[in-house]
Amino acid sequence: MRFRHPDGSTVHLAYCTNVHPAEALDGVLAQLRDHCEPVRRRLGRDRLGIGLWLAKDAARALVTDPAALRGLRCELERRGLEVVTLNGFPYEGFGAEEVKYRVYTPDWADPERLEHTAALARVLAGLLPEDVTEGSISTLPLAWRTAYDDERAETARTALRTLAERLDALEELTGRSIRVALEPEPGCVVETTRDAIAPLTAVGHDRIGICVDTCHLATSFEDPGTALDDLARAGVPVVKSQLSAALHAEQPHLPEVREALAAFAEPRFLHQTRTATAAGLRGTDDLDEALAGDALPDAGPWRSHFHVPLHAAPAAPLTSTLPVLTSALTRLVGGPHPLTRHLEVETYTWQALPPELRPRGRAQLADGIAAELTLARDLLTDLGLKELP
After folding, report:
1. What are the contacts of 57-64 at 24+ separation with CB within 8 A?
2. What pLDDT, in 10s, does the model give residues 163-186?
3. Is 289:295 a contact under the CB 8 Å cutoff?
4. pTM score of the predicted model
């Protein structure tokens, strides 16, 4: 979906396909048919943006076979879909029964992360619509925090500099400008937007910036205005933003609140949980750890890294951090000029919701994704953006 900002620039809105499991190219093609096109039809749009997730096998197939890349591009056009952004964070196995810590490998100290991301950039340059010259890729925020020392940090910085050089060369070759964005996430080396400033400044290239995920921002109790002001002062570009909402528990000391939270503790994904205290942010790597005894102080609200549907906050006594998303979006695109032109709804946890909240079949999932995009569209038009055909 495209929107005209009051300054005349185009802002793109997509939904991320990492909600649909697929490791190989045939699975990606099936996603377009079974999920993406049905969402577009529900929205009554001739064109729908998707934030494509390509696992390593799919990416390699596309980058090594020009006919396969042309075939994917034709399939996108045939189904009324377009791609300006990729989710390059998960490498493989994101649809596995247990993902947890595996999603953080390979990290940016591993040469395979560089090669995979460079491959994604070449693919994206070949998928951009004819009238679009800028693409974006979100990626792992360097590494999970453990086993990351000074030597690995320097290796990661070198890899990002090498990537920037390759992206420069790619633009010279194709005329398409691809930028890559570190996506701060709780528990990683870069957990917050502030954590991103030093490593990105050290890399020192405007092709490498940040992806502001509003669920992660909220989970770490960051104020959107302060975070975006800090980035602007440091000259760190906001390459893209993922529109998502975290799970919020206002009174985690109450038994009924803990019981409600326990329904969201599940075995597939990590749900890092945080609380703000006078001594700073405290947290656990997963929601079940927070619920075990006194692992986490419960005098103040808890927030958990669980991407809940934007349009459907959990039932009381829980809620979501949609207000943080709204506040961040106002700063991102509500000013005289957009801070980013790539927005992506990223609720990948539909099938990890408590059983009674999960969609039953493709039709209900498509309904839910369409409802999220409708909410995002309404937020954008309320900020003065005009939806384009």
Report:
1. 57/23, 57/24, 57/25, 57/92, 58/22, 58/23, 58/24, 58/25, 58/27, 58/28, 59/116, 59/119, 59/120, 59/123, 60/119, 61/24, 61/25, 62/25, 62/119, 62/123, 62/126, 63/119, 63/122, 63/123
2. 999 999 999 999 999 999 999 999
3. yes
4. 0.97
pLDDT band, very low/low/confident/very high, at 237 (cuts 50, 70, 90): very high
- With 0-12 / 13-18 / 19 or more C-beta atoms within 10 angstroms meaning exposed / middle / buried, residue 389 is exposed
Closest by Cα among 58, 129, 44, 60 to 93: 58
Do 157 and 151 form a contact (C-beta atoms < 8 A)? no
CA distances to 282, 295, 299 from 278, in Å: 10, 17, 11
pLDDT digits (tens, 9 = 90+) for 38-61: 999 999 999 999 999 999 999 999
CB 51 within 8 A of CB 85: yes
Residue at 202: amino acid letter: A
Residues in the chain: 389
Tokens matching residue 32: 């377009």
Closest Cα partner for 117 from 30, 125, 203?
Answer: 125
* 214 three-class SS: helix
- Tokens, residue 37: 């096109």
The string of DSSP letters for 330-377 reads HHHHSSSS-S-SEEEE----GGGS-GGGS--SHHHHHHHHHHHHHHHH
Q: How many CB atoms lie within 10 A of CB 25?
A: 21
Tokens 């989970």 belong to residue: 219
Is residue 111 predicted with pLDDT exceeding 90? yes
- CA separation (Å) from 170 to 63, 93, 115? 13, 28, 14
Cis peptide before 317 (omega within 30 of 0): yes
Per-residue pLDDT tens over the stretch 266-275? 999 999 999 9
Query: The tokens of 22 are what?
Result: 């697929």
Taking every pair of Cα atoms in the chain, the longest distance, rounded to a whole number of angstroms, is 60
DSSP-assigned beta bridge partners for residue 243 = 345
